Amino acid sequence: MPKHNRTFELTVNDIDLIEAALHTVKRDLSLERIENPELPASAEADPIRQIDDLWGRLHNQKVFFRPKADPYVSG
Asked: Which of 11, 23, 25, 59 sits a CA distance of 20 to 30 A from 48?
């Protein structure tokens, strides 16, 4: 039985491209929903929720840099 590939070699640019594509698809689905306000039958079938879930999983896999030598000042 074949196994799933569990390792991916994606660059930061690849992730940015994926996030931009998700943003575009979500925008189009949202505009479509405004024109046709019928809600999906279940939360699992809602593509907008699926996109938000995928965005969250991508975000949680990122490693954010915080300098250790100097005091961190945000903003």
From this structure: 11
